[in-house]
User: Which sequence fits this backbone?
């Protein structure tokens, strides 16, 4: 009997020891959990503080990080082409990367140069000429020879080029491969379709948008036509997959932002279209003021108006790829170019620069130490390429 009592006492003692051991393990795990949770909360607070300070930080100057010398002819023009610089004149064109290396050089003789770009591809032609040179930032892609005088053109990121060509009483709209092969063609008559005043290709070269203007009973009208050169359009008459008609509206500007979003700017409204196969109207924005300039990126549209604010010269209305209005922003400098990045817009001329966030915060307003032709963003750390006649400088705001 004593042995039984001893057995149960020892068993009870062992169970108590096991329970105490389990409690210790549980307390240890809870302590580790709370410690890790506390560290995570502190890290999140630190990161949030850094982000807030980053967003609120105002830059007052810049440092030149690197400088590469270049030699630019006085009559030539610099244009942003992807992350490189396209330089053209009446005698020829070449492309230079951020390190100053010339990737290609093309000579020609042109008087009235027309340049179309899409991402890192450019097409260079001459108004009333019959040759179009196509290249990207790395190499020349080919030359297109037309049989009629060139009036206008657009290029896609795959190198395809659509050109408006003038005939006696017909206007041709032909699309070529970068090597000059005629891929698609069509003709318009002023009395039927109107005159094509603006064209744009989607980056993949599958969609073409054309703005036709005509006069009916003394009233200006515009038709925006969308063509699909893929399988969907092959089943449609003349590849037409949609037409938007506008009365008493002049639409001299149409542009694809990406493969499924296009916009058109008229004298009284902005129209945004969505669709990768058959674009349709997604939104319209009316305005009474005259549009001074149009800027865009793959994600944003910017319309510049004269300011209604006495303290600023201009106002820019910005819209996003989802056809939503981002906001209106005022600025007080003359501008040569406006660049949209993921976080801000860069407004600049040859001597002065303003950087605004989409929240309306002025991150930088200052003067350049050199006469600037182009500014190119480098990443998202407020680092830029500053292109001048004599150098390509990498600058870091401070």
Assistant:
């Amino acid at each position: 009997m004593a042995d039984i009592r001893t057995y149960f006492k020892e068993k009870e003692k062992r169970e108590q020891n096991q329970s105490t051991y389990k409690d210790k393990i549980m307390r240890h795990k809870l302590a580790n959990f709370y410690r890790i949770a506390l560290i995570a909360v502190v890290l999140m607070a630190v990161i949030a503080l850094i982000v807030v300070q980053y967003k609120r930080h105002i830059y007052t100057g810049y440092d030149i990080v690197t400088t590469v010398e270049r030699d630019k002819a006085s009559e030539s023009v610099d244009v942003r082409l992807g992350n490189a610089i396209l330089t053209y004149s009446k005698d020829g064109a070449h492309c230079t990367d951020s390190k100053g290396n010339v990737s290609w050089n093309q000579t020609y003789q042109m008087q009235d140069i027309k340049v179309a770009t899409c991402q890192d591809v450019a097409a260079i032609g001459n108004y009333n000429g019959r040759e179009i040179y196509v290249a990207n930032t790395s190499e020349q892609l080919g030359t297109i020879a037309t049989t009629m005088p060139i009036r206008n053109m657009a290029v896609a990121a795959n190198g395809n080029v659509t050109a408006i060509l003038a005939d006696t009483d017909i206007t041709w709209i032909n699309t070529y491969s970068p090597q000059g092969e005629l891929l698609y063609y069509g003709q318009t008559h002023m009395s039927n379709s109107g005159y094509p005043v603006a064209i744009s290709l989607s980056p993949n070269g599958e969609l073409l948008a054309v703005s036709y203007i005509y006069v009916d009973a003394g009233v200006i009208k515009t038709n925006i036509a969308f063509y699909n050169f893929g399988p969907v359009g092959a089943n449609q008459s003349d590849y037409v997959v949609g037409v938007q008609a506008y009365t008493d509206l002049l639409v001299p500007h149409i542009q694809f932002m990406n493969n499924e979003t296009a916009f058109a700017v008229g004298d009284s409204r902005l129209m945004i279209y969505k669709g990768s196969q058959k674009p349709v109207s997604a939104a319209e924005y009316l305005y009474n003021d005259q549009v001074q300039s149009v800027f865009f990126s793959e994600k944003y549209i910017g319309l510049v108006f004269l300011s209604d604010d006495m303290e600023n010269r201009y106002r820019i209305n910005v819209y996003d790829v989802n056809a939503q209005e981002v906001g209106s922003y005022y600025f007080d400098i003359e501008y040569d170019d406006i660049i949209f990045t993921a976080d801000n817009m860069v407004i600049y001329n040859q001597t002065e620069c303003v950087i605004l966030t989409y929240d309306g915060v002025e991150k930088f307003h200052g003067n350049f130490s050199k006469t600037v032709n182009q500014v190119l963003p480098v990443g998202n750390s407020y680092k830029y390429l500053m292109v001048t006649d004599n150098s390509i400088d990498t600058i870091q705001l401070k």
Remarks:
- Residues 1-56 form one domain.
